[in-house]
C-alpha cells in the first residue's frame, strides 16, 4: 500500500509536473497568441489610425472645399428663392386677373344668353307676324288701298276746312271791326275804385249810385256838393252820367279786361288802338293799367300772344316791337333807356303819314319775342321811373306814360299784310291847379299836365266835329298843341279806335275832382269819331 501510495504519489507528481508543464506550455502559447493578437491588433490599429488620419485629412480638405461651395450655393439658392418668390407673386397676380376676367366673362355670358333668348323670342314673333302677313297679304293690300283712299279724302277735307277757316277768319275780322265801329270808335268806360283800408274814419264816402248795375251797367249818379240858397235852404243836386260801361268798386281787373279784349284783337287785325286812363291822382289809373299779372297791359300782352299762336294756324306770322316813353313837363323821355338820360336826352316824334305810323327817334325800340320779354321791359320802365322819382318826387303821378306795342303781321298763304299799334296810356293825375294849392316846380308840373290834358280834350272835340266843318271841309285837329297829342296823332282819330277810362275815387273829399273828371269824360263820350280804317292791308 505504501508503495502504491508512493507510486501514486509519484504518478501524481509526475502528472502534476506534466500538468504544470502543459499549463506552462499552454500559458506560453496563450501568451504568444495574445502577443500575436496584440501585435496584430497593434498593427491593424496603426493601419487603421493611419487610414483614419488620411481620411481625416481628406475629409477636412473635402470639408474646406465643400464649405466654400456651400456658401456660394446658399447665396445662389437665396437669389433663386427670391426670384422664385417674385415669380410666384406675379403668377398669383396673373391668377387673380384671370379669375376676375373669368368672372366677367361668366357674367357677360349670362347677359349674352339673356340677349340671345330675347332676340330669339323677338325673331319668333317676327316670324309669326311675317307668316301672318304672308298668309293675309291680299287682305292687307285691300286694307292698305282703302286706308290710302280714306287718307286722301281726309287730306282733301282738311285742305277744304283750312280754306274755309281762312275765309271765316277774314269774315270774322270784318264783322269784329264792324261791331267795334258800331259801338263807336271812341268809347268811354268809367271805373270807381273801392274805398281803401288806409282811409281814416273822418274820410266819408261820396254818395255814388249805380242805377242800372243789374242791367247794362252804363249809368252812374253822383250827389253833388251841398249849396245854400239865399233863403238858407241847403240842397244838393244829383248828377247823372252815362258811359259805354260803368264798373263799380267790386269789379275786378279781369271784368274790366273782358270789355276791352276786343280792342286788343283789333290791334292784331291792323288797327291803331289807344287805351288811356284819365283821373285824379290816386283814383286807380296805375292799378287798372299796370297791376302786375292782371292789369290791362299784362293781360293785353297775354292775349296778343295767345292770338298770335291761334292765327299762326291760319298762316299769320307777327313781329312785335315796343317802345315805352313818358311825357314829363312837355319833354319826352325813354323809359327803356338809361335813367341818367331822363330829362336830358332829346327824343323826336316822327310821323310816317303814308303808313299812319309814329316812332320816337332816339328811344329804344325793343323786339318783343315773348311775353316774358314784355314783362322785363315793363319792369325796367317802372325801375327807371322810380330812379327819377327820387329826384322829383312822385314822378309817376306827374307824368304821362305811353307803352306803344307795334304789331306787324304777314299771311304767308294769302300774301296779306297788316300793321297795327296798341297804345296803353297812363295819364298823369288830372287835379286842377286851384284845388291842388301847389307852387314852384309842382305848379309848373301841374300846369303842364293840365295843358296836355286839355289839349287831349280839344283834339277829341275837334275829331268829333270833323267832316261837319263849313263846306264839308276837314276840321283842323290841334295835335301839335301838346307832346302827348302829337305822339298819339295816329292813334286818336279816323284811323284808330280809342278807349278812355275815367277813373273815380269814391271819397267825398275828392268829389270836386270826380265831377270835373266825369264831365270831361262825358264830353269825350258825346264825341262821334268817323269810321276807323285798317292800316296798309295790302296783298303782295
Ligand atoms: N279797383 C281797385 N281795387 C283795389 N285797390 C285799388 C283799385 N284802384 C286803385 N286802388 C288802390 O288805390 C291806390 C291808388 O291807385 P293808383 O296808384 O292806381 O292811382 P293812380 O290814379 O294811378 O295815381 P297816380 O296818378 O298817383 O299814379 C293804390 O293803393 C291802389 O292799389
Overall spatial form? elongated
Helix-strand pattern, N to C?
HHEEEEEEEHEHHEEEEEHHEEHHHEH
Q: What's the average pLDDT?
A: 83
- Give the number of domains: 2
The structure class reads: alpha/beta
The CATH class designation of the largest domain is Alpha Beta
Number of E strands: 16
Give the name of the CATH architecture of the largest domain: 3-Layer(aba) Sandwich
The name of the CATH topology of the largest domain is Kinesin
Helical content, roughly?
Answer: 40-55%
What separation lies between the terminal Cα atoms? 200 Å
Largest sheet: 9 strands, mixed
Q: Given the structure, what is the number of helices?
A: 11
Binding site for ATP: 279-286
InterPro entries: Kinesin-like_fam (IPR027640), Kinesin_motor_CS (IPR019821), Kinesin_motor_dom (IPR001752), Kinesin_motor_dom_sf (IPR036961), P-loop_NTPase (IPR027417)
Coiled coil: 74-185
Family: Belongs to the TRAFAC class myosin-kinesin ATPase superfamily. Kinesin family. KIN-14 subfamily.
Q: Briefly, what is this?
A:
Keywords: ATP-binding, Coiled coil, Cytoplasm, Cytoskeleton, Microtubule, Motor protein, Nucleotide-binding. This is Kinesin-like protein. This protein has 540 residues and is an alpha/beta fold.
Outline the structure in words:
Residues 1-32, 45-74 are annotated as: Disordered. Belongs to the TRAFAC class myosin-kinesin ATPase superfamily. Kinesin family. KIN-14 subfamily. Keywords: ATP-binding, Coiled coil, Cytoplasm, Cytoskeleton, Microtubule, Motor protein, Nucleotide-binding. This protein is of the alpha/beta class and 540 residues long. The protein folds into 2 domains: 21-134; 184-195 and 252-525, 3-Layer(aba) Sandwich (Kinesin). It has 11 helices and 16 strands. Helix 3 crosses helix 5. The chain binds adenosine-5'-triphosphate. The site of adenosine-5'-triphosphate has 15 residues, from helix 4 and helix 7.
